[in-house]
Amino acid sequence: MTDQRVTDHETEVRRVADTSTPNATSGNWALEARGLGKRYRRGWALRDCSFRIPAGRICGLVGPNGAGKSTLLGLATRQVQPTTGDLRVFGVPVDDPAVLPQVAFLGQDKPLFKRFTVAETLRMGAELNPGWDAAAAHRIVRAGNVPMDARVGTLSGGQRTRVAFALAFGKRPDLLLLDEPMSDLDPLARDEMSTLLMAEAVERGTTVVMSSHMLTELEDMCDYLLVVSEGRIRMAGDADALVPAHTLVTGVARDGSLPPELAAHTIVESRLQGRQFQAMVRPRGPLPADWERAEPSLEEVLLAHLRSPDAPPLYTQGARVDAEGTQAA
Questions:
Q1: Which class for 62: exposed (0-12), middle (13-18), buried (19 or more C-beta within 10 A)?
Q2: For residue 325, is pLDDT > 60?
Q3: The pTM is what?
Q4: Which residues on adjacent β-strands are paired with residue 225?
């Protein structure tokens, strides 16, 4: 099997009508990055990242280990300072103290005080957050039959995650950032927590940005995607527009090589197997009639982009801004 990768770095922007996406002047963007970058001694973790995430969406943050996902979340939570560029939260610079009450962050380690009881943990949340929603926090805990007098250290993984979500939603954030907080849960607990997350986010209109390696989970939960690879944005925009922009084609290879007609389209990934070729493409015109065509799943599109970081990036309309902050064409 031979992989053929496109090395053209030209950005491809698809103009897709979407009435749920804010216009460029509305300011209703939960996260907006312009030329964002972070460099450590070993090199760039993120570089030249420009994107927008609309308010009220559930955005999947996708990428392999070391792609820059945690660095991006660190920048959004002020745990990491940018080397270049600008990041705004609901139109306000991320380093403005006014941003803090609007954002909640929940990481994989879910740092809770193990000696605190559940009741003490929620009381701490109330004391630290002026806009605390005690009713919502208690509802989330009680819905999972978590004893209020139990110490956090004695709870199961699913129960601890539920308490952590209660703290996050009790803050009443406008933006909830999740760095794989459900990765250590069994399938039943993951399903329970996913349902909880969706219900609470929809009820409150909370914007959620969640990093996850579970592609099927993202397909079920997310309506917006941000794909990162090798520190750069590879795809950004509405999931319902990104997937149909791709076509999976299969045909007969000629003399052991890809057909020249394939070069007329944007190739994300291609491979030769025996006398056949298969390619994930973004068509730029009609495809040959003798090629078999199929619409790929979200998982197939994501895997193709993650395996081919040199494929030209793809943004849906409104998802990308240039370094000066104007909407990209």
A1: buried
A2: no
A3: 0.85
A4: 60, 237
Residue 6 pLDDT more than 70? Answer: no
pLDDT at 171: 94
Angstrom distance (rounded) from CA 242 to CA 268: 13
Distance in angstroms (rounded) separating the CA atoms of residues 270 and 1:
10
Q: How far apart, in whole angstroms, are the C-alpha atoms of residue 232 and residue 33?
A: 12
CA distance 16 to 107: 33
- Let me know: does 325 contact 21? Beta carbons within 8 Å: no
Residues 182-197 pLDDT 10s = 877 788 888 888 888 8
In the chain, count of helices (H) and strands (E)?
8, 17
Return the number of other C-beta atoms located less than 10 Å from residue 167's C-beta.
23
User: Which residues, 6 or more positions from 310, have their beta carbon under 8 angstroms from its beta carbon?
Assistant: 5, 6, 7, 9
Distance CA 316, CA 325 (A): 16
- Residue predicted with more confidence, 202 or 181: 202
- Cβ pair 158, 186 in contact under 8 A: yes
**Would you give the distance in Å from CA 27 to the centre of its chain?**
20
User: Within 13 Å of residue 283, how many CA atoms lie on the same side as its CB?
Assistant: 15
Q: How far apart are CA 60 and CA 239, in angstroms?
A: 9
Q: Pick from 185, 39, 220, 44: which is nearest to 106 by CA?
A: 185
User: Looking at residue 125, what DSSP letter applies?
Assistant: H
